[in-house]
C-alpha cells in the first residue's frame, strides 16, 4: 500500500494535471499539458485530449441512440411491406423520384462540406471553415425547401396520412405510372369507363376482364362495352402488383386502390417528417457553430464541436440514403 | 490507496473531517441550484424530486388499496380507480424507479467514487434534470385534464381510442426517456474517460459497475420506447393505422415495441439496486466482496440478456409458439447471473464482522425480498404456468417484490448509507431501525397475499372482484398502510436530521471507496487532483480504526 | 340454467356472480380440465424448490448475522477470513441452478405446446369479446352469453374481439388467450367434471373490465346436446317481445342500454319507440322500425344527439327474426 503524499493534494489550480505516475493509470492520456492554459478546456477535464475523447465517445453514443430511435420505424416499415407489398408498390408512384434524388445529392454535398469543415477547424483555417459551414447550411435549407414542395404537392393531391387519405388522382392516371406501364394505364381507364357505362345503364354486375393469357384471378363474364378479346400480361400485372385489381384491392374487378393504402403515407410522412425534424435541428446547431467559428475559437486544441456536429450530420445523411430507396425506388 | 486521513489538510479542517464550507454552502439562492453544474447538487435535486414523486405515487397506491378493501364501490368509481392505478404505475416506473438510484444517488456519489471533479458533461446532466421536470409536469397535467386510464403499459387499441388525456402522459414519458438517455450517456463517458490513475475497470467499485451496465441499457433501450410512444401519439392524432386494427394496424406490434424497451427497463430499475447492495455488504461485514469479478461481469450479462427476453410478457398474446419458446429459454438464463450475485453477497458475510445498522438492515431486507421476487420470476418464465398466471395478481406480487422490495429497499439503503456523506448529518439510528422493520413487514404483508390471489385466479387491474377474494385483499391493504407508515417515519427523521448542525464524520461506516476520503459534505470541487489507486475498492478495512470521539473511522 | 349477468355501472353487485367451487388445496382453484395437470404439478414443484432455496439462502444469511455479529464498532474486530473468491463455488452454484432451470423450461415448454394444440375433432365454439361482455356462438348459429360445454370432450374456442384487447380466462382450466381485434386466436380444454366455473376477462379493457364475467357450465353426458336443442326450440317458439327481452341480456345490449329510463352509454329503451330525436349529424326524425333496424346493423349511421359512436354493429350476428324480436321488445317498453 503506498501512501499518497499530501503535496500533490494541496490547492493546485484547476486544470493542472498530476505528474505522470509510475504505475499504470486509467485510459486517458495525461499528455504534456503542464503549465499550458487552454481557454476552452472545461474545469473538470485534465487535458484537451481527454476532453475531446470524452466528447467523441459521447457523440457516438448519442448517434447510436438515434439509430435505435429510427430503427423502430424501419422495423414497422419492414413488417408492413412484408405484409402488404401491393400498398407500397401502389403508393410509390405518387412520389416524385426526381425531387428525392435531388435531395439525396444535396445532402451528400453537405456531408462533404461538413467533413471538410472539421479539417478546417483542426488547422484553424477560420475563413474556409466559415465558408464550408455556410454551404452546409445552404444545402440543408435547400433540402427542407424541396421537402416543403413535395409535402405541399401531397397535401394538394389529398395524399394525407391515415384517415385523411383521399387521393385526387387515380394511380394509373399518374405520369410516373403511365410512363412505366402504358398498356396497364390504358386498360385501367378502359375498365373504369366500362364500369361507369354499366352503372349508368343500371346493370347489376360491374364489368369483368375476360379470361385470357395472363395470371389474373378475376372470374369471367363478357364485358358489355366494348369487348376485348385478349388481355395481356403487360395490361394486367402492374395493376395486380399495385393492388388496383384483384383480391388486395378495395374492389376486385373495378380499378380502385388497395385496402389500407393509407398506411404507406402514414409511414412516409412519419419517417420523412422525423428525418426533416432532425435536419432542422442540425441547421440550428450549424448556425450556432457558425457564429462561434466566426470568432475564431476553433483550433488544433479545440475542434470537438465541429467534429461532433459533422458526425451527427453524416448520420442524418445516412438515414436519408436508406429512406430514399426504401420509399421512392420500390419495384 | 490514498490514506483516509488526508482530509485533514483540506479547506476548513476539523479532526472529524467536517467542513463548514462545502458544496451545500458554497453558493446560495434558488438560481444557484436550478442552474447548477455541480453533479452533487443535481443529484440532491433529483433525490428530492424523486422522493416527492414517490410520495404522490404512494398516495395513489394507498387509494387503490383502500378501494380494494371491499368488492364494488368503496371510495371511488370504476373510471377513477382505473385512472388511479394507471397513474400509480406510470409515476412509479417513469418518475421514481428508473431515474431513482442512478440519477439521484449516482449523480451525488459516482464521480466521488472515481475521484473525479464532475461527470463528463455537466451541462447535459443539468439538462437531464430539467427534462425530468418537464416530463413530470406533462404526466401530471394528464391528471388535471382527464387522467389517463390505460394502465402504465398503454396497450393499443385501448390507448389509441380512449377519451382520456393519453397524449400528454405519453409525451411526458417520451421526454423522460431523453432525461434517462442523457444520464446514461453521461455516465458511460465518465466511467470510460475519467477514472483516476490506477483504477482499472476491475478496481472500480461495484456500484460504478452497476451504473455502467445500467447506462448501457438506458442508452440502447430507451430510444425504442421513445419511438413507440411517438407512434402511439401520432396514431391518436392522425389515425395512421399502425396499431389500430380498425385502421389496418396490428395491436400485437405495439406490445412487441413496448416490451422491447420495458423489459430492459426493469433491469435499469434493479441493476443499480444490486450496485448499492454490493457497496453496503462488504463495508458492514468488514470483509472484501466475495467474487468481485463475477458480480461485475454478471451485471453486464444481465444487461445483455435483458434485451432478448421481451416476449415473455406476451406468451398469451397470440405470439407464435416458437417465439414464446425462445423467449422462455433465454429468460431462464437470466436467473443464473442473478443467483450468482445473491450467493456472492451471502458468501461475503461468512466469517465477517456484521454490523446491523440501518443501511445493513435494508440490505438484508433486500436479500429476503428480492430472493422471493426473483424466484417468482421463474414461475412466470415457465410457459405453461404463465398461461394461468399472466395478468393475475401473481404478476403484480412478483414485480412489487422485485421493484418495491428490490429497487426501493436498495434506494432506502443507499440513502441511509450515503446520507452522512451527502448532507453531513447523522440521522436517528433507532428510528432508522424501526422504520426499516416496518417497511420490511409492510412489504411482506402487502404483497405475499397477492401471490395467493393470483394463483386462485384473481386478474389484475380489477376494480370489482368476486367476494371470495376479500379476505386476502383486506390483509394486503393493511400491509400497505404499515408500509406507508414506515416511509412516513423515515421521511420524518431524515428531514429532522437536516435541521441540526453538521455532525457527521468523513467516514462513519469505515468504507474504503474514494468518496469516504472527502469531507462530509464534500467540497464543491470534490478533489483537487485525482487520488492514486493502488488496490481494489474493498481492500483495507484492517487499516482503518474506529475513533469514538468523532464516531467515525480514521487510518491507523 | 343460463345465468344472467347484469350490468354493473358504478359497482353494484350483480344478482348472480360466477362462483369458484371449493378447491381442495391452498394455492390453485379446483382442477377441472386435462390441461390443468401439467400446470399444477410444475407449480407445486417450484413452490417446494423455492421454499428450500429460501430456507437455504435466508437461513445462511440469518445464521451469519447471528454468529458473526459485531460487538461494537469501537471493538474494531477483524474479519476471520479474507478469502474473496472461489472459482469452484462460482461454477458450482451456477451449474446446479442451470440444471434445475433447464428442467423447468423443458416441462413448461411441453405443457405449453400441449395447451396450444387442440386435438382433432374438438367441438368448436366461437367466442367474441366486446366491451364488456363475452358472447358465445354455438354450432348452428345460436348465440348465448354463457358458455355451455359437454364433459370429457375436447372443446376448441375460436376467439376474437370487436373493439379492444380482451383476454379469455378460465382459471379452473388453467387456460387463457388474448382476444385480439382484427384476428382470431384459439385455446382448447377438456373438462373433467361437470360443474359451473367462472370465466373472466384478463386484459384491461376500460371501465367495466372487472365486470366482464361469465361462467362455463359443464354438462354431464348428454346434457350439452339436450341444452342446445332446448335453446333452438325456445327461440323458434317464443313470442317476439320475449325473444327480444332474452336477446337484450344475451347479446349485450344491457351493457349500454337500460330499460327503466336510466341514462347509460346508449339511449334508454324505455319510451324510445315513436320518439322524436335529433341526431348528431344535425338531422332529426322519429324512432320507428326502420330506424331501429338501421341502428342495429349500422349503428354509426344516425346517432342520437348527445351520444358517442360506441356501438358495435350486429350485422350478420342477428337473424331477421331476432331483430324483429328486439324491435317488438322496445315497442313494449312504454
Q: What's the layout of helices and strands?
A:
The complex is a heterotrimer of chains A (331), B (556) and C (334).
Chain A: H1 48-83, H2 85-92, H3 97-122, H4 126-156, H5 175-180, H6 182-200, H7 233-241, H8 262-294, H9 304-328
Helix pairs in contact in A: 1-2, 1-8, 1-9, 3-4, 3-9, 4-8, 6-7, 8-9
Chain B: H1 30-34, H2 39-67, H3 78-113, H4 122-146, H5 158-161, H6 166-193, H7 206-238, H8 251-285, H9 292-306, H10 321-349, H11 358-381, H12 383-389, H13 393-423, H14 429-455, H15 470-499, E1 544-547, E2 552-555
Antiparallel strand pairs in B: 1-2
Chain C: H1 36-67, H2 87-115, E1 123-130, E2 133-137, E3 143-144, E4 147-150, E5 154-161, E6 166-170, E7 175-179, E8 185-190, E9 195-201, E10 214-219, H3 223-237, H4 240-250, E11 276-278, E12 284-286, H5 289-297, H6 320-332
Parallel strand pairs in C: 1-5, 4-10
Antiparallel strand pairs in C: 1-2, 2-3, 5-8, 6-7, 6-9, 9-10, 11-12
Helix pairs in contact in C: 1-2, 4-6
Give a brief outline of the structure.
The complex is a heterotrimer of chains A (331), B (556) and C (334). Chain B is mostly helical.
Q: Any descriptors?
A:
heterotrimer; A: 331 residues; mainly alpha; Four Helix Bundle (Hemerythrin (Met), subunit A); 2 domains; 9 helices; elongated; disordered N terminus; B: 556 residues; Cytochrome C Oxidase, Chain A; two-stranded antiparallel sheet
Beta-strand segment tally of chain A: 0
Q: What is the typical, i.e. mean, pLDDT of chain C?
A: 89
Query: Could you tell me the mean pLDDT of chain A?
Result: 81
* CATH H-level homologous superfamily name of the largest domain in chain A: Cytochrome c oxidase, subunit III, four-helix bundle
Major sheet size, sense and barrel closure of chain C: 5 strands, mixed
Tally of DSSP helical segments of chain A:
9
Q: Using DSSP, what is the number of strands of chain C?
A: 12
How many structural domains in the coordinates of chain A?
A: 2
Shape of chain A: elongated
Put simply, the count of helices of chain C is 6
Oligomer: heterotrimer
Biggest β-sheet strands, sense, barrel of chain A: none
CA gyration radius of chain C, whole angstroms = 28 Å
**What proportion strand of chain A?**
under 5%
The CATH H-level superfamily of the domain at 123-234 in chain C is Cupredoxins -  blue copper proteins
Give me the CATH fold name of the largest domain in chain A. Four Helix Bundle (Hemerythrin (Met), subunit A)
- What is the gyration radius of chain A calculated from CA atoms? 30 Å
Uncertain stretches of chain A: 1-35, 205-225
Q: What is the SS-derived class of chain C?
A: alpha+beta
Enumerate the spans of chain C where pLDDT stays under 50 for 5 or more consecutive residues: 1-11
The CATH topology assignment of the domain at 123-234 in chain C is Immunoglobulin-like
Amino acid at each position: 500500500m503506498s501512501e499518497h503524499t499530501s503535496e500533490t493534494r494541496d490547492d493546485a489550480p484547476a486544470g493542472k494535471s498530476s505528474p505522470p505516475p509510475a504505475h499504470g493509470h486509467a485510459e486517458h492520456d495525461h499528455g504534456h499539458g503542464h503549465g499550458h492554459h487552454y481557454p476552452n478546456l472545461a474545469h473538470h477535464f485534465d487535458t484537451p485530449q481527454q476532453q475531446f475523447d470524452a466528447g467523441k465517445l459521447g457523440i457516438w453514443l448519442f448517434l447510436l441512440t438515434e439509430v435505435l430511435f429510427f430503427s423502430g420505424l424501419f422495423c414497422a416499415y419492414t413488417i408492413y411491406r412484408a405484409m402488404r407489398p401491393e400498398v407500397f408498390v401502389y403508393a410509390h408512384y405518387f412520389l416524385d423520384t426526381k425531387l428525392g434524388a435531388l435531395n439525396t445529392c444535396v445532402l451528400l454535398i453537405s456531408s462533404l462540406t461538413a467533413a471538410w469543415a472539421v479539417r478546417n477547424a483542426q488547422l484553424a483555417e477560420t475563413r474556409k471553415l466559415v465558408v464550408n459551414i455556410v454551404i452546409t447550411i445552404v444545402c440543408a435549407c435547400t433540402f427542407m425547401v424541396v421537402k416543403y414542395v413535395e409535402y405541399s404537392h401531397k397535401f394538394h393531391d389529398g395524399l394525407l396520412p391515415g384517415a385523411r387519405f383521399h387521393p385526387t388522382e387515380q394511380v394509373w392516371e399518374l405520369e410516373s405510372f403511365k410512363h412505366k406501364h402504358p398498356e396497364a394505364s390504358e386498360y385501367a381507364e378502359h375498365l373504369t369507363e366500362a364500369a361507369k357505362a354499366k352503372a349508368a345503364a343500371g346493370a347489376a354486375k360491374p364489368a369483368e376482364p375476360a379470361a385470357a393469357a395472363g395470371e389474373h384471378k378475376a372470374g369471367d363474364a363478357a364485358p358489355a362495352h366494348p369487348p376485348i378479346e385478349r388481355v395481356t400480361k403487360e395490361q394486367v400485372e402492374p395493376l395486380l402488383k399495385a393492388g388496383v385489381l384483384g383480391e388486395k384491392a378495395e374492389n376486385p374487378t373495378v380499378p380502385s386502390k388497395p385496402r389500407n393504402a393509407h398506411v404507406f403515407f402514414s409511414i412516409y410522412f412519419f419517417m420523412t417528417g422525423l428525418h426533416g425534424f432532425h435536419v432542422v435541428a442540425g441547421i440550428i446547431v450549424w448556425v450556432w457553430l457558425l457564429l462561434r467559428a466566426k470568432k475564431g475559437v476553433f483550433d488544433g486544441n479545440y475542434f470537438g464541436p465541429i467534429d461532433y456536429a459533422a458526425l451527427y450530420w453524416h448520420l442524418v445523411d445516412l438515414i436519408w440514403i436508406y429512406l430514399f430507396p426504401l420509399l421512392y425506388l420500390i419495384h | 490507496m490514498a490514506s483516509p486521513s488526508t482530509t485533514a489538510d483540506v479547506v476548513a479542517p476539523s479532526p472529524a473531517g467536517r467542513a463548514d464550507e462545502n458544496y451545500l454552502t458554497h453558493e446560495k439562492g434558488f438560481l444557484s441550484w436550478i442552474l447548477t453544474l455541480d453533479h452533487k447538487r443535481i443529484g440532491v435535486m433529483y433525490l428530492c424530486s424523486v422522493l416527492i414523486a414517490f410520495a404522490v405515487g404512494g398516495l395513489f397506491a394507498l387509494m387503490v388499496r383502500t378501494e380494494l378493501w371491499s368488492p364494488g364501490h368503496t371510495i371511488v368509481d370504476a373510471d377513477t380507480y382505473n385512472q388511479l392505478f394507471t397513474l400509480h404505475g406510470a409515476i412509479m416506473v417513469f418518475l421514481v424507479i428508473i431515474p431513482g438510484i442512478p440519477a439521484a444517488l449516482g449523480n451525488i456519489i459516482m464521480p466521488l467514487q472515481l475521484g473525479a471533479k464532475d461527470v463528463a458533461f455537466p451541462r447535459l446532466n443539468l439538462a437531464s434534470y430539467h427534462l425530468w421536470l418537464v416530463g413530470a409536469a406533462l404526466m401530471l397535467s394528464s391528471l388535471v385534464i382527464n387522467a389517463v386510464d390505460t394502465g402504465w403499459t398503454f396497450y393499443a387499441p385501448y390507448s389509441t381510442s380512449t377519451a382520456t388525456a393519453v397524449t400528454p402522459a405519453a409525451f411526458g414519458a417520451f421526454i423522460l426517456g431523453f432525461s434517462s438517455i442523457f444520464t446514461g450517456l453521461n455516465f458511460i463517458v465518465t466511467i470510460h474517460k475519467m477514472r483516476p490513475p490506477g483504477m482499472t475497470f476491475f478496481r472500480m467499485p461495484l456500484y460504478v459497475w452497476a451504473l455502467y451496465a445500467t447506462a448501457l441499457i438506458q442508452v440502447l433501450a430507451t430510444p425504442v420506447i421513445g419511438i413507440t410512444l411517438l407512434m402511439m401519439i401520432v396514431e391518436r392524432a392522425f389515425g395512421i393505422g399502425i396499431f389500430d386494427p380498425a385502421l389496418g394496424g396490428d395491436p400485437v406490434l405495439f406490445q412487441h415495441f413496448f416490451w422491447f424497451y420495458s423489459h430492459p427497463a426493469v433491469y435499469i430499475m434493479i441493476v443499480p439496486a444490486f450496485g448499492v447492495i454490493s457497496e453496503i455488504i462488504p463495508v458492514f461485514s468488514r470483509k472484501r466482496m466475495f467474487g468481485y469479478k463475477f458480480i461485475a461481469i454478471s451485471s453486464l450479462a444481465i444487461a445483455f440478456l435483458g434485451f432478448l427476453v421481451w416476449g415473455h410478457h406476451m406468451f398469451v398474446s397470440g405470439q407464435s409458439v416458437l417465439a414464446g419458446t425462445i423467449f422462455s429459454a433465454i429468460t431462464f438464463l437470466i436467473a443464473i447471473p442473478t443467483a450468482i450475485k445473491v450467493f456472492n453477497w451471502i458468501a461475503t458475510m461468512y466469517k465477517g464482522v456484521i454490523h446491523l445498522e440501518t443501511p445493513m438492515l435494508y440490505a438484508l431486507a433486500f436479500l429476503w425480498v428480492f430472493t422471493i421476487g426473483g424466484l417468482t420470476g421463474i414461475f412466470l418464465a415457465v410457459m405453461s404456468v404463465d398461461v394461468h398466471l399472466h395478468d393475475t395478481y401473481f404478476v403484480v406480487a412478483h414485480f412489487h417484490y422485485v421493484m418495491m422490495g428490490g429497487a426501493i429497499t436498495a434506494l432506502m439503503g443507499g440513502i441511509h448509507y450515503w446520507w452522512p456523506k451527502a448532507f453531513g448529518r447523522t440521522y436517528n439510528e433507532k428510528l432508522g431501525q424501526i422504520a426499516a422493520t416496518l417497511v420490511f413487514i409492510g412489504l411482506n404483508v402487502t404483497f405475499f397475499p397477492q401471490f395467493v390471489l393470483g394463483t386462485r385466479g384473481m386478474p389484475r387491474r380489477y376494480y370489482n372482484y368476486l367476494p371470495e377474494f376479500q379476505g386476502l385483499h383486506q390483509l394486503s391493504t393493511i400491509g400497505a398502510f404499515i408500509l406507508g407508515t414506515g416511509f412516513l417515519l423515515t421521511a420524518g427523521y431524515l428531514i429532522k436530521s437536516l435541521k441540526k448542525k453538521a455532525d457527521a464524520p468523513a467516514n462513519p461506516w469505515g468504507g474504503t471507496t474514494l468518496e469516504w476520503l472527502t469531507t462530509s459534505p464534500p467540497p464543491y470541487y470534490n478533489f483537487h487532483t485525482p487520488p492514486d489507486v493502488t488496490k481494489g475498492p474493498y481492500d483495507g478495512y484492517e487499516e482503518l480504526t474506529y475513533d469514538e470521539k468523532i464516531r467515525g473511522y480514521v487510518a491507523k | 340454467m343460463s345465468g344472467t349477468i347484469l350490468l354493473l355501472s358504478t359497482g353494484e353487485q350483480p344478482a348472480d356472480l360466477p362462483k369458484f367451487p371449493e378447491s381442495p388445496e391452498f394455492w390453485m382453484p379446483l382442477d377441472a380440465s386435462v390441461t390443468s395437470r401439467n400446470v399444477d404439478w410444475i407449480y407445486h414443484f417450484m413452490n417446494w424448490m423455492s421454499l428450500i432455496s429460501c430456507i437455504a439462502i435466508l437461513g445462511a444469511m440469518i445464521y451469519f448475522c447471528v454468529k458473526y455479529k459485531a460487538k461494537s464498532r469501537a471493538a474494531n474486530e477483524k474479519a476471520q477470513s479474507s478469502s474473496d473468491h472461489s472459482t469452484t463455488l462460482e461454477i458450482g452454484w451456477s451449474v446446479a441452478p442451470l440444471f434445475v432451470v433447464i428442467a423447468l423450461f423443458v416441462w413448461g415448454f411441453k405443457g405449453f405446446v400441449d395447451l396450444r394444440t387442440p386435438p382433432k375433432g374438438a367441438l368448436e365454439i366461437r367466442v367474441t369479446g366486446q366491451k364488456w361482455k363475452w358472447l358465445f356462438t354455438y354450432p348452428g348459429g345460436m348465440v348465448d352469453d354463457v358458455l355451455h360445454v359437454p364433459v370429457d370432450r375436447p372443446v376448441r374456442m375460436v376467439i376474437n374481439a370487436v373493439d379492444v384487447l380482451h383476454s379469455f380466462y378460465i382459471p379452473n382450466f388453467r387456460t387463457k388467450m388474448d382476444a385480439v381485434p382484427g384476428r382470431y386466436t384459439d385455446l382448447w380444454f377438456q373438462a373433467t367434471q361437470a360443474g359451473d366455473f367462472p370465466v373472466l376477462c384478463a386484459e384491461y379493457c376500460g371501465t367495466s373490465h372487472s365486470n366482464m364475467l361469465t361462467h362455463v357450465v359443464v354438462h354431464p353426458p348428454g346434457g350439452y346436446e339436450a341444452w342446445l336443442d332446448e335453446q333452438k326450440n325456445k327461440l323458434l317458439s317464443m313470442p317476439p317481445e320475449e325473444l327480444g327481452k332474452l336477446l337484450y341480456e344475451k347479446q349485450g345490449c344491457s351493457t349500454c342500454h337500460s330499460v327503466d329510463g336510466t341514462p347509460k352509454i346508449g339511449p334508454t329503451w324505455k319510451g324510445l319507440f315513436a320518439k322524436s330525436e335529433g341526431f348528431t349529424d344535425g338531422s332529426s326524425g322519429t324512432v320507428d322500425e326502420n330506424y331501429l333496424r338501421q341502428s342495429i346493423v349500422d349503428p354509426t349511421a344516425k346517432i342520437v344527439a348527445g351520444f358517442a359512436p360506441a356501438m358495435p354493429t350486429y350485422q350478420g350476428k342477428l337473424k331477421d327474426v331476432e331483430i324483429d324480436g328486439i324491435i317488438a321488445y322496445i315497442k313494449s317498453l312504454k
